[in-house]
Amino acid sequence: MLKLMRMKGSTFLVWGILVLLIAGLAGFGIGDILRGGLTNTVARSGDVSVSTREYTRAMIRALRARANNGQPITMAEARESGFDRQVLAGLVQRGVLDAELVNQGLSVGDATVEAEIAKIPGFQGPDGKFSPEQARFMLDRYGYTEAELAAEIRSESAIALLRKVLTDDLPLPPGLLDTLLAYRLEQRKFAWIRLDAERFGTVEGEPTEEELVAWHKAHAEAFTTPETRVISYAALDPAVLAEGIEIPDEKVKAVYQADIEHYRSPERRSLQRLTFPSMKEAQEAKEKIEKGETTLLALAEARGFAEKDIDLGEKPASALDKPVADAVFALTEPGLAGPVETGLGPALFQVNAILAAHETPFEEAAPAIRKELALKAARDKANELAPQIDDLVAGGARVEEIAQETPFVLGNLELAKGVAGEGLAADPTFIETAEKAEKGVESDLAQAADGTYFVLRVDEIRPAALKPLDQVRDAVIAGWKLEKKRESTREKAKALMARIGEGATLAQIAAELGVTLAEAGPVGRTGKVEGVPARLIGDVFGLQPNGVALAEDDGAVYLAQLVQVISYDPARPEAAQAATFYRAQLEAAYRAEVFDYYAQALQARNPTEIFPSAVDSVLSRIR
Hints:
By secondary structure, the chain is an alpha+beta fold.
């Protein structure tokens, strides 16, 4: 082709061939090239564009964030669920907002950017302080330049400033808070009974062979062995490597002295706080608590608050307002302090524990410091080995050879799809690498969430298979019988509901059946009642007084009868604190939604154009 193009007499032939090539490659994204979208752009909205580099980084970060939050997702799952499009849409929206910041003349200074960068946990050294060396290492690992990171932090900080300017003074729509409170703080009391399927269910005869075959087939998932991959791997765990690294005492002492405040803990109190509309009501509540008639937690729960809502954690005096600190730290043993006037109103404080001031001596701190320094050194050594492993894999080395020639350790495991594993078998990156690996071929070097480097090979793929009926016959018979018992118990419960509708009470029915009539409540919509399926509580909130609801679990049927509806009353003493708590949540959600609509309106000025082949190219390279 090159020779033809150099020949003057071949001009028409060359252009003819190029036209044919363009037509033939149209289905492969050549249209993106002609529109200028394939080179380094995955999306564009007006003058705003998202590069392949930006999209790659954002997808990797989003996937890792999900994995760290216990929600690992493969690339196939990400594309099927639209997760990849959500990430791209977020980048486009941020680009549009960046452009608006320029129009509005909003930005943040270098000092703000530097302060935000210093807070990034991954940039901190063993002493917990910002480490330029660690920052440079992490930037290199994730493919960032210092300028790119600074630009991203500046953008995020400026967008936060814009959000504050636009939404901080937005009032809630009239009636919205009251509507939410009326819904969230309504409570109910109900009575309930449990009808155990083994006791009240009946089975007529034994199942026929045809019924067993049908039940086995209908519940195939319970009797199917999952697809399993037999894997050989070579792995280097920095934690294991660290065990052989010696750290000099001088270095350990230097870290201890540099971060001495970390090893000094002031006297603290473990606290709970509950505020009241007036000092009088706070004092009355204190008297009831001191008489043993109630507890601070019980008073909070009566207002619809959970224990976590009133828990302040462990606080030193310096973290509390002086009047609060004086009252709380005046106690020499756990107890009740206050009432004290606070910014939220009069409050009582429950001191659950008194934690004395403590300084960890060097001898106690040294092992942990030494371990952390050894681990950092091991990670550095593992990172230095990575290029060597890449070369070995590129040269066709097997995992066995990698383990022989490097500190990597050889291992084997079986990875069953959908079954929780341990160690590497539980790591999202390891699982995804194994699922994408070609059988019999070594994978590229990858890194697990805990820092372990690995190369793996799938030696065998056992497909999912339904266990023959003869192997699981006893389990199938037991399952069939339990299902029949549940069905008959359900029908019996429906007949009992009909009787209640005709005037019988749940108490009468409980006495006839010889079961316990339990009472529950007051309970809120999101509350829990021990021994009752969560669905039943939701159904109770759909009942009229004396109405009956039915719910099931694997072994029983439950009947519940509504006894009392306790509506939200704004005049109740606890209403003020509830309103304060929910107002803060509602305002945050409302302002976030308003800002999102604002961003969407900006973006609507210019339709977003997506370049599919560029997107596919990025996603195909992420492992």
